[in-house]
């Protein structure tokens, strides 16, 4: 009923092991998830990260989803992690989310990552600032 329509989903992500963050979001996904099926057909995606640990929200005891807290939105292309990067993606995901090791193998899990094309920082009710991908 929603074929071809965009929709959101919550996926575990990691940008590297704790002491080696890269800024590149990696995901451990299954083709049994409609989100992944859609991404394999049309890889354009966006990812929004809330200011969960920022000083302003924590200091003022404000919910990270409150519009006064900043959000970082990444947009780009979701791609299957190439063989030469799979070991890094595995270390990245399993070190931050050890529970995934117990997920059923019959789900044919594999790694995807986002090739970031645009970055926007939004704060205070809609002010948006572009950030260069290189930064």
Automatic annotation (TrEMBL):
Family: Belongs to the CREG family.
Alphabetical list of PANTHER family matching this protein: CREG1 PROTEIN (PTHR13343), PROTEIN CREG2 (PTHR13343:SF15)
Protein name, entry field: CREG2 protein
InterPro entries to which the protein is assigned, alphabetical: CREG_beta-barrel, Split_barrel_FMN-bd
Keyword Glycoprotein among UniProt keywords: yes
GO cellular component, one term: cytoplasm
Keyword annotations: Glycoprotein, Secreted, Signal
Chain ranges of the CREG-like beta-barrel domain: 2-135
Annotated Pfam families: CREG_beta-barrel (PF13883)
Location relative to the cell: Secreted
Organism: Chloropsis cyanopogon
SUPFAM superfamilies: FMN-binding split barrel (SSF50475)
């Amino acid at each position: 009923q929603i074929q071809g329509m965009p929709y959101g989903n919550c996926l575990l992500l990691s940008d590297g092991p704790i002491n080696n963050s890269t800024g590149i979001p990696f995901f451990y996904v299954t083709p049994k998830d409609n989100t992944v099926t859609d991404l394999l057909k049309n890889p354009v995606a966006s990812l929004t990260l809330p200011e969960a640990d920022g000083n302003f929200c924590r200091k003022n005891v404000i919910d990270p989803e409150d519009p006064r807290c900043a959000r970082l939105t990444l947009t780009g292309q979701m791609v299957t992690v190439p063989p030469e990067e799979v070991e890094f993606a595995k270390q990245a995901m399993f070190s931050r989310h050890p529970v995934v090791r117990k997920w059923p193998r019959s789900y044919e899990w594999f790694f995807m990552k986002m090739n970031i094309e645009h970055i926007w920082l939004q704060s205070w009710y809609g002010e948006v600032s572009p950030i260069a991908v290189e930064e």
